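Shipment paperwork, digital attachment
Item: protein structure file
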Amino acid sequence: MSLRRLIRIILCASLIVISLAFAFSLYTTV
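Attachment content:
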């Protein structure tokens, strides 16, 4: 596996985690 592909996968995963955490915080606030 190339390093560039690994970085892209990590970025996508972190973006999904951040969006899920943001949605969860909004859901618990409301």
